[in-house]
């Protein structure tokens, strides 16, 4: 005897991220009302008013009901507060409505290669356990309209882009073909949380590393401490992000962005290492040109730089020597009121000193720093255009 089952999920309720949609574990939990329709002529009864009779779950043990189970289910149960949430309604012509309130945790085959800019396709599959298609036929009573959801449903991490019903067949070599019903839904992840947690801090650290290009190459402690700070901060951001993302063996979109950002920060430190090395090479060349006496001054300047982090240029010291001599003369003359001094001479000395300091700053700007100020931001902007254009 063939039994025909008309299947309808009249109302599907996803509770709190489809009951906390645990996407990082590649499964989801859904709570919904599952309603079966079928006809059993053995349960017909005479009625003058054409009314139905409603029963609770105690009658289920006395009659035939479809043996539907959830494919790829990890855990499922029927709610029993305050009693089992089961309803059976029998009509005079033998039509039966069987309703259950069920919570199901099922697998979802997810791909996190585009995480957190990903879209996931999940489905809940229903099938008869014992009856193949020759004994029992399953189909949606009203097609795609058989699924009704709450209009105000809101998930913490996802937008529900699509929610549909479909059907198909499943083959088992030992038992044959079975009808299978699908509840399909497409989920698109909210990105704003990950922008605040990962993307925006990474951008700030990369831009902060560019400040090093505008600091004098002689200021070793300033540039070195800034480079190490940005590298360590990027490492902290990557470690924090890895703790809150799916643990998979392949590369995710967020990994690409964070590691490329880390590479930019790391290259800014390498850039200063190159600048410092080339500066040392230039000093050695100047040492050979100036001769032994000038070389001694350079060695002393390098030693002084190693202690206080500031380069003492011999030329600067020589050029500023007259100013120091005039300062001494001015102090002596100030003690002797008879020596005439003018304010105009002091103003000229200050202006000449400021101009000399400006020339020193421009001279200490290495050509690599000049190019880095343009190349690093340009490359990072190009990377962002390619990244967001590819994944969004």
Summarize the structure.
The protein folds into two domains: 180 residues, Distorted Sandwich (Acetylcholine Binding Protein, Chain: A); 96 residues, Neurotransmitter-gated ion-channel transmembrane domain (Methane Monooxygenase Hydroxylase, Chain G, domain 1), CATH 1.20.58. The protein has eight helices and eleven strands. Helix 2 packs parallel to helix 4 and helix 4 packs antiparallel against helix 5.
Question: Which key features would you list for this structure?
Answer:
392 residues; Acetylcholine Binding Protein, Chain: A; Methane Monooxygenase Hydroxylase, Chain G, domain 1; 7-stranded mixed beta sheet; 25% strand
Please describe what this structure looks like:
The structure is a single chain. The chain is an alpha+beta fold and 392 residues long. The chain has two domains: 10-189, Acetylcholine Binding Protein, Chain: A; 193-288, Methane Monooxygenase Hydroxylase, Chain G, domain 1 (Up-down Bundle), CATH 1.20.58.390. The protein is 43% helix and 25% strand. It contains eight helices and eleven strands. The chain has helices at residues 16-20, 192-209, 220-242, 253-290, 292-308, 314-335, 343-364, 367-391; strands spanning 3-13, 27-39, 53-55, 68-71, 73-78, 86-90, 95-107, 119-128, 136-140, 158-172, 176-189. The strands form two sheets. Strands 1, 2, 3, 5, 6, 7 and 9 form a seven-stranded mixed β-sheet that branches. Strands 4-8-11-10 form a four-stranded antiparallel β-sheet, with no helix packed on it. Strand 10 (158-172) and strand 11 form a beta hairpin. Helix 2 runs antiparallel to helix 3 (220-242). The longest helix has 38 residues, at 253-290. The radius of gyration is 39 Å and the shape is rod-shaped. The relative contact order is 0.10. The model is unreliable at 1-23 and 306-341 (pLDDT under 50).
């Amino acid at each position: 005897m063939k039994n025909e089952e008309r299947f309808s999920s009249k109302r599907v309720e996803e509770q709190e991220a489809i009951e906390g949609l645990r996407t990082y574990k590649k499964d989801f939990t859904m709570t919904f009302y599952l309603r079966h329709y079928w006809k059993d002529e053995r349960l017909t009864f005479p009625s003058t008013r054409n009314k139905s009779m409603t029963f609770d779950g105690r009658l289920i043990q006395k009659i035939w009901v479809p043996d539907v189970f959830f494919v790829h289910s990890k855990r499922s149960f029927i709610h029993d507060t305050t009693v089992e949430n089961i309803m059976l309604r029998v009509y005079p012509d033998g039509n039966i409505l069987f309703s259950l309130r069920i919570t199901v945790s099922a697998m979802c085959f997810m791909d996190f290669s585009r995480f957190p800019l990903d879209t996931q396709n999940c489905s809940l599959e229903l099938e008869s356990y014992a009856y193949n298609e020759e004994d029992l036929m399953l189909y949606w009573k009203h097609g795609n309209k058989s699924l009704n959801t709450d209009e105000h449903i809101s998930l913490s991490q996802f937008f529900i882009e699509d929610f549909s019903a479909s059907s198909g067949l499943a083959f088992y070599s030992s038992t044959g073909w079975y009808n299978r019903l699908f509840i399909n839904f497409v989920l698109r992840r909210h990105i704003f949380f990950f922008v605040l947690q990962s993307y925006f801090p990474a951008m700030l650290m990369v831009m902060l590393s560019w400040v090093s290009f505008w600091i004098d190459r002689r200021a070793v402690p300033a540039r070195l401490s800034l480079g190490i700070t940005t590298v360590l901060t990027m490492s902290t951001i990557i470690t924090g992000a890895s703790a809150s993302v799916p643990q998979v063996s392949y590369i995710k979109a967020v990994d690409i962005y964070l590691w490329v950002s880390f590479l930019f920060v790391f290259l800014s430190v390498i850039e200063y290492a190159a600048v410092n090395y080339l500066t040392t090479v230039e000093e050695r060349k100047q040492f050979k040109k100036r001769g032994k006496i000038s070389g001694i001054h350079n060695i002393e300047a390098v030693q002084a730089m190693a202690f206080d982090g500031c380069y003492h240029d011999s030329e600067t010291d020589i050029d500023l020597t007259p100013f120091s001599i005039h300062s001494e003369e001015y102090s002596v003359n100030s003690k002797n009121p008879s020596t005439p001094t003018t304010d105009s001479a002091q103003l000229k000395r200050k202006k000449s000193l400021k101009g000399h300091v400006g020339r020193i700053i421009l001279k200490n700007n290495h050509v690599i720093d000049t190019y880095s100020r343009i190349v690093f931001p340009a490359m990072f902007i190009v990377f962002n255009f390619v990244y967001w254009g590819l994944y969004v």
